[in-house]
Amino acid sequence: MRKSLTLLLSGILGFMLLTGCDRKDEAPVYVPKAIVVDTMTVAQTDEPRWITVLGRAESGEAVDVRAQVTGILKKSLRQEGGQVRHGEVLYEIDPAPFKADLDLALAELQSAKVRRQQADRELDRASKLIKSGAVSQKFYDTALSEAEAARAKEAEKNAAAKDAAIRLDWTRVKAPASGMIGKNLVNPGALVSSESTLLNTVTAPDDLRVAFSASERVLDGAHITKENRVFVTDERGNRHNARIDFIAPDVSASSGTRLMRVKVLDKADVSPGDFLRVTLMTEIRKGVYRVPQKLIRQLPDGNYGIFVMIDGKAHERIVEVDRWDGPDWIVRKGLEPGDRIITTQLVRVREGTLVKTADKP
Questions:
Q1: Helix (H) or strand (E) holding 101
Q2: To the nearest whole percent, how much of the chain has pLDDT over 70?
Q3: CA–CA–CA angle 315, 317, 318 (5° rounding)
Q4: Residues 26, 156: contact at Cβ < 8 Å?
């Protein structure tokens, strides 16, 4: 009995070994799971390109205040930095010598007037006498010449008196325009020279310009005209409408920049000399795509790539980018309208990676 049981167990064990040798080891098949991602669909658009440069405010009607006569500055009649009206007296030059010149001119005019009146009487008398034949023609001609000379002399002295009166009035230096007066450049007691000594400057804050320069690199070949859109921003962050009113015809050889100027159209609390930011539209890029900067990566070969979702897989597209515009890249080429750009899981995504969105398997 014991021998039979041993034989039975040996047979069962041998059968199990034989059947086990006929099975092949089968490794489990790994099926990758699709990564859940978010996407954004792109569409073509026309995007303006803006540049921002620093500019400096200046008055469009800045007028120099200069004396028209030479003399000693007696006093300043207006406070620095205040508002003045056109024709308002700003400075006074010592009028004494000019008053003396006027008095002398008036006295000479009076003397010439008396001589002219005497010559007119002599001519009138000669006219009556020549009719009766009491005097010769030569006598009459002499009286006529003296009367004409006397009238010319009176006219000369009258002009001299008017000139002296004008020069006396010029000792009261008046504002050539309405606006804000600057800092006094000459102190009372100093000698000021006619038309050469600068006393001050009057600026018109309501006619404000902002001058700025943009390099050729920043302009990037853009053709700027007076129709380009532009606005300025002051140091408080206030934005003001503006328009271009001057463009230099050539680029400066020394600085490599083009000088331009805009006129501020809004009421702005800005003084000449203040710095402002000028934002200028240089062109409109047509048929481009706006893509967040973080979605585009620079490849080792210098190109730029972006992942798009096609048929449940991630595919890398090589794109041609323009300049940044705020938080976005402007993409010129490499995308098509309706492309679904992958916006999340970018660290895990590779070419050919299975992807899906949360709302689709």
A1: helix 96-132
A2: 89
A3: 150
A4: no
**For residue 13, pLDDT beyond 70:** no
E runs forming strands in 113-203:
172-174, 179-181, 191-192, 198-203
What pTM value is reported for the model?
Answer: 0.52
Percent of the chain with pLDDT over 90: 52
Q: Say whether 346 sits in a helix, a strand or coil.
A: coil
pLDDT band at 315; cut points 50, 70, 90:
very high
d(CA 60, CA 64): 12
Contacts of 311 (CB under 8 A, 6+ apart): none
Alpha-carbon gap, residue 307 to 233, rounded angstroms: 38
Structure tokens at 37: 């991602």
Instruction: State the Cα–Cα distance between residues 139 and 290, nearest whole angstrom.
Output: 104
Contact 279, 294 (CB under 8 A): no
Place of tokens 């790539």: 305
The edge-to-edge listing of strands for the beta sheet with 83-84 is: 63-66, 198-203, 179-181, 83-84
What does residue 305 show for φ and ψ, rounded to 5 degrees?
-125, 155
Query: Where does residue 105 rank: exposed (0-12), middle (13-18), buried (19+ CB within 10 A)?
Result: buried
Sole residue written with tokens 């003397």: 111
DSSP assignment of 278-333 equals EEEEEEEEEEEEEEEGGG-EE-TTS-EEEEEEETTEEEEEEEEEEEEETTEEEEEE
Indicate the length of the chain as a whole number.
361
Q: What is the pLDDT of residues 201-249, one digit of tens each?
A: 888 766 788 999 998 888 888 889 999 999 999 888 899 999 999 999 8
Residue 310: predicted pLDDT: 93
Average pLDDT for 298-315: 92
- State mean pLDDT over 253-263: 89
